[in-house]
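hiii so um. not sure if this is the right channel but i have a protein structure encoded as tokens and i wanna go backwards to a sequence. like what aa goes where. can anyone help
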């Protein structure tokens, strides 16, 4: 308990998994929390006493799953292991912190998603700016940026870290609004993994940022020593990177993080996507259910390697703005599309190559298993053939694309140190290395003499046993004498009852059995001692040799990781090429202009769900100089949202270097893509549906530029009709007059169609509908045509949704009154109920016939006038 309490004092905010034999135990408050979170039985130590200590535990062999559940719930887990053999320990078994698992620092393959990075991030604030750094400890990917404080929440939305570090003061102050917006993140402080006893005061560093003194215990200062690229980082970005690296290092007391370089970037180097755009366009997950299936990433992700999948995900959330870089990616995609047979062979070969980035990281951290090294050996052995396969597709007219060539491309796969490592691992490792080192049979026979000798003895000394058996049979004259082994008695000689008289005098009886006797000899005892010693020696020697192989991998881990990164580019481009070929995508022209022109564009996700050839394509043209704002009207369910989202998704696909679902497309580079789509409240933030809508619209109006693409769907619908029309009209005017952004604006307010008469760069389009008068039904044609719509057909959609017939009929009646200018104000009927009549929701409407009758002065009407009035009344009737 002293050992346990010592660890708990040092890691006060973590749950301690304390190894006791075959279990990890939790005590005191940790046990209460752990039992509740993991649904474990809570018991006590020293049962029956008033000061009994609560405790619970999990089997050590099943600990991975329990730890994963705790980290998903936002807990940190400190794993304390026995670091000496209990059989050899004098007194208490020595225990030490082996590793710390946090929501953002997870290295277990069973928990990590292969195609998704797992980031721990840090934010450092100073006045109106902040530094953001994020790290994937499994691969060593480290990136940092400095950005305005107001842009932090949106950047976190696309980075999507699982854990975020900041000081307690920042969390309670400038980061409080961000904390309320960003979901799915475990927020923690610098001090989380530092001993309580360290300095708890505040200090200021050279950039003016107040940092907790506890951070000193994490060796924050100097954490980036030796990491390339850190010198060029802005002060706040560098500080954030130092903290996140120091924090991650503190989780691995016995390992080294696989960080080779710091990638410093500016948020606007890529297309800026805010939280609403990522969600509404369903780039990486669906709005409903938060699943990958049904997202744009799901459609374009045909990658066959984990690094390729992670890279493609990053491309989609960080689309390019640099036209030459976009075209270099397009060149690779086009090169593969034009060589379908070669592309298929490349993808098959890539599919056999393991995750080099994470394997290199595990070796550097010292947690690689024999099976990991076996997979690495096999992968490295395939690299020369894969590189040769790619180069075989080159010719004088079309060489290997620039992005794949050179030291940063597939040249990274041909570095001599990789070939040397592959040969070394091939010599040292068995053909099928086990999952765990303790399982044995790791080192190849013939590689090490000590291993071979020990393995021969540890296998039971078969040759020695046969030799002893033959000699004893001849010496004793007992032909059926057998040398056997069991775990209870070890090695023994078994002699049946019929031959007991022939037993030599030097045999020592060990056991009597029903069929005879069992004996032992000095020679057998010596053999048993050698075999047992050989097992221990073999395990120790294989462990020693395996650690040497892991260390050899760690030395060249940067090269291994670089090769993995090069293959990821090939795989991501190969995925885009495969999708383009299968779905009939075309290469768009991406330039620095402002025009966006799409011919026969299709929504990539909706098209993938529908039967082939059934999606109705549409054109779109947006140009700040001519057709800047396109007002889209038409019925509910006709496809306005699908049309607009398709345009936005096509633009983003083009800017990641992908082909697009269209007959042709010209995309003037977008700096930002904004969306205001759908209606949803956010009660946890205190926002109504209309407030969410207005917040998103306000953000767009504040940040959009002439080069932005804006998608607005039903602005103003969360309030009264007149308020909504006024807001929508004013927003459209402001975008046209003050911002100049390329905009798709869908609305049911048909009054906005008149904007085209007063604003030169507003164009009306609508989604066509065919009315079937005979069946009293409408048919959605899904075709976008010029001009504005005059009806929304909401009642028809309500009928399709299943509203009762009487409700639909009543709605049509009310609509008719409203469209004729009548009042729809409800009235109170105080008369007794009468089942023979139906109470009206509408106030009485004056009949023209009744009005005319009321105006006739019968007493002063001549017969001739009466005849004329009668004819007029008949006409009115």
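sure thing!! here u go:
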């Amino acid at each position: 308990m002293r050992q346990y309490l010592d660890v708990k004092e040092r890691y006060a905010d973590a749950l301690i998994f304390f190894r006791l034999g075959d279990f990890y135990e939790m005590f005191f408050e940790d046990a209460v929390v752990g039992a509740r979170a993991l649904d474990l039985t809570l018991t006590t130590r020293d049962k029956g006493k008033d000061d009994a200590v609560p405790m619970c535990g999990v089997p050590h062999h099943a600990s991975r799953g329990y730890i994963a559940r705790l980290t998903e719930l936002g807990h940190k887990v400190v794993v304390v292991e026995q670091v000496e053999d209990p059989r050899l320990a004098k007194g208490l078994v020595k225990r030490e912190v082996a590793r710390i698992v946090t929501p953002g620092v997870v290295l277990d393959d069973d928990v990590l998603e292969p195609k998704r990075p797992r980031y721990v991030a840090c934010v450092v604030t100073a006045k109106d700016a902040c530094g953001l750094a994020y790290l994937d400890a499994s691969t060593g990917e480290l990136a940092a940026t400095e950005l305005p404080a107001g842009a932090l929440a949106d950047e976190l939305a696309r980075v999507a870290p699982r854990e975020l570090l900041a000081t307690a003061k920042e969390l309670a102050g400038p980061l409080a609004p961000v904390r309320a917006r960003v979901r799915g993140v475990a927020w923690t402080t610098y001090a989380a993994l530092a001993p309580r006893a360290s300095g708890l005061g505040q200090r200021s560093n050279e950039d003016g940022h107040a940092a907790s003194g506890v951070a000193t215990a994490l060796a924050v200062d100097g954490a980036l020593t030796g990491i390339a690229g850190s010198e060029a980082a802005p002060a706040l970005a560098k500080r954030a990177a130092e903290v996140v690296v120091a924090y991650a290092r503190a989780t691995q007391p016995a390992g080294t993080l696989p960080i080779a370089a710091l990638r410093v970037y500016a948020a606007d180097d890529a297309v800026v996507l805010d939280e609403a755009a990522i969600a509404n366009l369903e780039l990486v997950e669906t709005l409903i259910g938060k699943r990958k299936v049904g997202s744009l990433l799901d459609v374009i992700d045909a990658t066959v390697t984990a690094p390729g999948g992670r890279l493609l995900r990053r491309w989609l959330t960080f689309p390019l703005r640099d036209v030459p870089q976009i075209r270099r990616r397009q060149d690779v995609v086009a090169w593969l599309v034009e060589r379908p047979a070669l592309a298929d062979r490349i993808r098959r070969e890539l599919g056999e190559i393991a995750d080099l980035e994470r394997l290199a990281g595990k070796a550097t951290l010292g947690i690689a298993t024999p099976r990991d090294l076996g997979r690495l050996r096999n992968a490295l052995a395939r690299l020369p053939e894969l590189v040769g396969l790619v180069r075989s597709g080159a010719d004088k007219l079309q060489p290997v694309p620039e992005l794949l060539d050179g030291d940063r491309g597939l040249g990274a796969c041909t570095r001599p140190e990789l070939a040397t490592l592959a040969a070394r691992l091939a010599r040292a490792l068995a053909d099928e290395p086990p999952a765990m080192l303790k399982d044995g049979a790791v080192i190849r026979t013939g590689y090490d003499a000590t291993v071979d000798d020990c393995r021969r003895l540890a296998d039971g000394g078969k040759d020695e046993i046969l030799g002893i058996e033959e000699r004893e049979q001849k010496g004793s004259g007992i032909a059926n004498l057998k040398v056997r082994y069991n775990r209870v008695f070890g090695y023994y000689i078994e002699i049946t009852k019929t031959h007991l008289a022939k037993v030599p005098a030097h045999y020592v009886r060990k056991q009597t059995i029903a069929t005879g006797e069992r004996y032992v000899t000095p020679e057998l005892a010596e053999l048993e001692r050698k075999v047992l010693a050989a097992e221990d020696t073999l395990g120790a020697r294989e462990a020693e040799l395996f650690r040497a192989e892991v260390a050899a991998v760690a030395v060249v881990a940067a090269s291994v990781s670089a090769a993995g990164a090069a293959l990821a580019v090939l795989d991501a481009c190969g995925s885009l090429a495969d999708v383009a070929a299968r779905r009939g995508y075309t290469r768009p022209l991406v330039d620095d202009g402002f025009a966006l022109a799409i011919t026969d564009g299709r929504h990539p996700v909706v098209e993938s769900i529908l039967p082939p050839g059934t999606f109705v394509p549409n054109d779109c043209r947006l140009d700040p100089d001519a057709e800047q704002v396109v007002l889209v009207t038409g019925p509910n369910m006709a496809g306005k949202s699908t049309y607009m989202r398709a345009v936005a998704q096509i633009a983003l696909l083009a800017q990641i270097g992908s082909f697009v679902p269209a007959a042709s497309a010209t995309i003037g580079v977008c700096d930002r893509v904004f969306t205001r789509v759908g209606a949803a409240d956010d009660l946890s933030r205190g926002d109504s549906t209309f407030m969410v809508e207005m917040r998103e619209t306000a953000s767009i109006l504040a940040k959009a530029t002439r080069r932005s693409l804006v998608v607005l769907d039903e602005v103003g619908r969360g309030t009264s009709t007149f308020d909504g029309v006024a807001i929508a009209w004013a927003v459209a005017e402001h975008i046209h007059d003050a911002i100049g952004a390329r905009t798709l604006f869908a609305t049911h307010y048909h009054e906005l169609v008149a904007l085209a008469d007063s604003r030169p760069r507003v164009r009306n389009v609508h989604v066509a509908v065919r009315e079937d008068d005979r069946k009293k039904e409408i048919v959605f044609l899904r075709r976008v045509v010029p001009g504005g719509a005059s009806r929304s057909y909401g009642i028809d959609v309500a009928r399709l949704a299943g509203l009762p017939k009487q409700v639909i009929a009543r709605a049509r009646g009310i609509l008719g009154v409203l469209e004729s200018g009548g009042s729809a104000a409800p009235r109170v009927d105080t008369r007794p109920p009468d089942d023979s009549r139906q109470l009206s929701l509408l106030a009485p409407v004056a009949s023209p016939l009744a009005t005319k009758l009321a105006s006739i002065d019968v007493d002063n009407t001549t017969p001739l006038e009466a005849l004329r009035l009668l004819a007029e009344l008949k006409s009115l009737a």
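oh and The chain has 28 helices and 29 strands.
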